[in-house]
């Protein structure tokens, strides 16, 4: 058939994208790249794109009337008795593809098993790893086995952060590189700084620190509370001259725990719940903070950079790959004292905040866009 990527007037490349249960970020990424791959050359690949995944995601992944088609496959986030049937279903779909691109460790494992059963010529297998495996000993043990299957069975393993790429190489991946994820569109605040501060009932001498994210263990929110307490103590002891409100936007399984612990510690933290005005909060913030234990290519930090917010973030996973060395102040994971000190220093120095804001905007302009992602996949998909 020849190389369809080098012959746009010849047979169209047939691409199958596969994903399992998703909290949203992976599904949005797959929908975005599926549409881009199906777009005509030169901006897209002009490919025939099919997406396979849980039925509930179908409308988002392949809108009716669009160029992308969808097939429901019940890929869950944990092993289950029906996985044998899922493998057979994926085998049938993969048999008509030139490239099968799976997203996530579970989906990647099932795709590797399915494509081994396809008669020659087998499709090229690409797996993107979006998260670091976390959990108890049993979960980590199962994940380590799945990582071996993916690393040794895929033609190329992409990781959203450099540490995921290194893990796959250590487990025997033949080809691996950092996955490019397109930066989000530049957010546009709808309310000015003064309006946000009025809504939060802030006094003139109160600084606003903002964190946005799911209230889940990955976000390091107990460390956030400890850092907030240290900031509050600095004010009480006269080591800082501005009171602080640390506003946390988001919901999740730790909400009750964080509310109880914050009250017990008398931390200057307000849990705002899920918000639809995140750009307004970022634009009004004196400092934006991420205390995450691990991140891939964090969307929230990218949006904060685009808005020119001074950012303090833990040097976790792929965060540095997003911020660069100068786009944010990076501190060690889990170090509440270092986080509090970095925030306090920025709050005390308007000049440093302004310089960091300028560096944030400059870094945001360097982040990959959708065209960069298509170019990477064009190369990775080529045989």
From TrEMBL:
Gene Ontology MF term list: glycosyltransferase activity
A Pfam family of this chain: Glyco_trans_4_4
InterPro entries in alphabetical order: Glyco_trans_4-like_N, Glycosyltransferase_grp1
One Gene Ontology term from the biological process aspect of the record: carbohydrate derivative biosynthetic process
Domain Glycosyltransferase subfamily 4-like N-terminal positions: 24-182
Keywords: Glycosyltransferase, Transferase
SUPFAM superfamilies linked to this entry: UDP-Glycosyltransferase/glycogen phosphorylase
Domain of life: Bacteria
PANTHER family: SULFOQUINOVOSYL TRANSFERASE SQD2
Protein name in the entry: D-inositol 3-phosphate glycosyltransferase
Species in which this protein is naturally found: Pengzhenrongella frigida
